[in-house]
């Protein structure tokens, strides 16, 4: 069985819906049971790493960027799997050195993300990794940060896509790989 299929089945079996959290009207998708299951987590990491490889299996990215906070949990092992560096994108005020910054809309509010100015180099190819693709705002904002550094986003890899929110209208021409669409 493929890692992608195994990952999708694990997500369907292990993700827990938490209604009305973090605020009324939101159904939070708790991925911690997936992370606690070694086989499921391994399959998820392998499947998320796939867009960082070409058809022959060669790595085609220089860095993996993970978005705060659950994206860190996923992106770091994806970077290790691909043999490349991991770069965190953080909420405002969390990074200690000079940053690029962008403010964007969330499905239930507004946020500012930051990336160290020297985290990615001009010309590097970057894979974005996160847990949920909702409105696409976080991906679009992270792409802006990466491109402000002169690097290129080659794709985004996510556990879940909330298709009913039409996130791909925000991600434009960026290839999106999703393990589970809700």
UniProtKB/TrEMBL annotation:
The keyword ATP-binding is assigned to this record: no
Residue ranges of coiled coil: none
Keyword Ion transport listed: no
Listed InterPro entries: Ade_phspho_trans, PRTase-like, PRTase_dom, UPRTase/APRTase
Reactions catalysed, as given in the entry: AMP + diphosphate = 5-phospho-alpha-D-ribose 1-diphosphate + adenine
Gene Ontology cellular component list: cytoplasm
Similarity comment text for this entry: Belongs to the purine/pyrimidine phosphoribosyltransferase family.
HAMAP family: Aden_phosphoribosyltr (MF_00004)
Name this protein carries in UniProt: Adenine phosphoribosyltransferase
Originating gene: apt
């Amino acid at each position: 069985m493929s890692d992608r299929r195994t990952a999708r089945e694990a997500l369907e079996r292990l993700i827990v819906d938490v209604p009305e959290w973090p605020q009324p009207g939101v159904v939070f998708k708790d991925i911690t049971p997936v992370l606690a299951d070694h086989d499921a987590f391994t399959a998820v990491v392998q499947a998320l790493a796939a867009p960082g490889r070409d058809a022959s299996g060669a790595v085609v990215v220089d860095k993996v960027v993970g978005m705060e906070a659950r994206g860190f949990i996923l992106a770091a092992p994806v970077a290790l799997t691909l043999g490349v560096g991991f770069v965190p994108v953080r909420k405002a005020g969390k990074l200690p050195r000079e940053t690029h910054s962008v403010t964007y809309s969330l499905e239930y509010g507004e946020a500012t993300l930051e990336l160290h100015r020297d985290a990615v180099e001009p010309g590097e190819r970057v894979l974005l990794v996160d847990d949920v693709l909702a409105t696409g705002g976080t991906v679009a904002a992270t792409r802006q940060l990466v491109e402000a550094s002169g690097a290129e986003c080659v794709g985004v890899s996510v556990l879940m896509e909330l298709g009913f929110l039409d996130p791909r209208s925000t991600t434009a021409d960026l290839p999106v790989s999703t393990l589970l669409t809700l």
